[in-house]
Specification:
Blueprint: E1 2-5, E2 11-15, H1 18-21, H2 34-39, H3 57-71, E3 75-79, H4 82-85, H5 95-110, E4 114-120, H6 126-131, H7 138-154, E5 160-165, H8 167-175, H9 187-211, E6 215-227, H10 232-250, H11 260-268, H12 279-283, E7 289-302, E8 310-312, H13 330-341, E9 346-352, H14 368-386, E10 390-397, E11 416-418, E12 425-427, H15 429-440, E13 442-445
Parallel strand pairs: 2-3, 2-10, 3-4, 4-5, 5-6, 6-7, 7-9, 9-10
Antiparallel strand pairs: 1-13, 7-8, 11-12
Bound molecules: beta-D-fucopyranose (FCB).
């Protein structure tokens, strides 16, 4: 047994998202989000639930911050609910909503926990969806106005901002596959959404720069792509998968524009990205860091019969309770790849975690599958740092079991167990493990 260390000053945290934990969905003047509406549409959520209450964090945030402090968290990634702050998406702010975030941030700072705030983790105000949502170019401008409002209100205490969480998921799962809100299936709309998300990111970065303080980046969803075998066809197929999933969302931000293969595909389907003069400059406004979310890997092989030219090969690893491949090496592999591809940006791992539905037995939650997979991810991450990636921090997904979108409460990612009936919290065995990692700034490699 030996311990693998992280650099001095490495920051350890946990992540959540407003809709998944807050509850208080209809309280104190909050407007409806697309998720409030989506959950009420029959058949959208596998369990038939909604997140009107979720983890009731809106009322229990003080206790939750106390739990964070007990774990030893140094930083906490939360997201703001846009419709809690601007019930109709724009116009007059809701003071009670802003007050909630004021109090939450103050509670974190009292415990020396640095807030990292995501502006958009999927809960668009329904009023803006009614006008066209992300398919409408104006939404990018409204996002920038919302961003400016919160930078002014919270920027004296928040120094780390994230524009979007996983724009690929908003675009593809929300507008192409339609399994997440707003539940649309249309490639032309998807292309518009992709571009307007990018544009809104660039405009928000510019808005933060205008305030003269704070650091900002974007968080993308990633999979570590591996060719299914050593053949040339699989190598090329894996590159295509990176174009469609990774470079589509990193390229414009890093000044490289949209990948040619992806542009060709969308144009061939009469679904072009609606790029106007100057947009790519706005989108590539320099950022301070890249947020990396990663849960798994995928083996890729060629499939000429599919328009995109590739497909995922059969898994060769066991699956987690989420159906993700249990691939501990994937985090280090991806971080190394993205660091080399984009010339060594500062990276925060803004989400990484494991779905393990183990529940309490005699008050103890022995989530050893989560613990061991987390250990593997962290060992790989430490090695990626050793060989050159500039990773400054790590946020485990998630602090608490929460409302897992269209899967409701049927999937548990927390290092703290949530009893959704009583709202009791129980730190799991993985929480003990994580606390020790934080204390030692190192992970034991077995
Ligand atoms: C990510 C999301 C997060 C959570 C985890 C499991 O894609 O950003 O909200 O759903 O997956």
């Amino acid at each position: 047994m030996s311990w693998v260390s992280f650099p001095d000053g490495f920051e350890w945290g946990a992540a959540t998202a407003a809709y998944q934990i807050e509850g208080g969905a209809l309280e104190d003047g909050k407007g409806l989000s697309i998720w409030d509406v989506f959950c009420r549409q029959p058949g959208r959520i596998v369990t038939g639930e909604n997140a009107d209450v979720a983890c009731d964090h809106y009322h229990r945030y003080r206790d939750d911050v106390a739990l964070m402090a007990e774990l030893g968290l140094q930083t906490y990634r939360l997201s703001l609910s846009w419709p809690r702050i601007l019930p109709r998406g724009r116009g007059t702010p809701n003071e009670a909503g802003l007050d909630f975030y004021d109090r939450l941030i103050d509670a974190l700072l009292e415990r020396q926990i640095r807030p990292c705030v995501t502006l958009y983790h999927w809960d668009l105000p329904q009023s803006l969806q009614d006008l066209g949502g992300w398919a409408l170019r104006d939404t990018a401008g409204w996002f920038a106005e919302y961003a400016k409002l919160v930078f002014e209100r919270l920027g004296d205490r928040v120094s780390r901002w994230i524009t979007h969480n996983e724009p690929i998921v908003t675009a593809m799962m929300g507008h192409r596959v339609g399994v997440l809100a707003p539940g649309i299936r249309d490639l032309g709309i998807t292309a518009r959404v992709v571009h307007h998300l990018h544009l809104s990111h660039g405009l928000a970065v510019m808005a933060l720069r205008a305030t003269g303080r704070g650091q900002i980046g974007i968080t993308n969803a990633n999979t570590s792509y591996e060719p299914a075998d050593g053949g040339e066809e699989s190598l090329q197929a894996a590159e295509l998968a990176r174009d469609f999933d990774t470079r589509l969302f990193h390229g414009p931000v890093f000044g490289r524009g949209y990948p040619a293969s992806v542009v060709r595909y969308y144009e061939s389907k009469n679904a072009p990205f609606p790029v106007e003069d100057g947009d790519l400059d706005v989108i590539s406004e320099p950022t301070d860091f890249l947020g990396v979310n990663l849960y798994s890997r995928s083996r890729i092989e060629a499939d000429p019969a599919r328009g995109v030219g590739y497909r995922a090969a059969e898994p060769t690893l066991p699956l987690t309770d989420m159906g993700y491949k249990a691939a501990p090496h994937a985090l280090g592999d991806f971080v190394t790849w993205v660091s080399e591809e984009y010339e060594r940006p500062v990276i925060y791992v803004t989400e990484n975690g494991v779905c393990d539905n183990t529940g309490p037995v005699d008050g103890v939650v022995e989530d050893t599958a989560r613990r061991e997979l987390l250990r593997g991810f962290l060992v790989g991450l430490a090695r990626a740092v050793e060989i050159g990636a500039d990773v400054r921090g790590y946020y485990v997904w998630s602090l608490l079991d929460n409302f897992e979108w269209a899967l409701g409460t049927s999937r548990r990612f927390g290092i703290i167990y949530t009893d959704f009936e009583t709202q009791k919290r129980i730190p799991k065995v993985s929480a003990e493990f994580y606390s020790e990692v934080i204390r030692r700034n190192a992970v034991e490699s077995k």
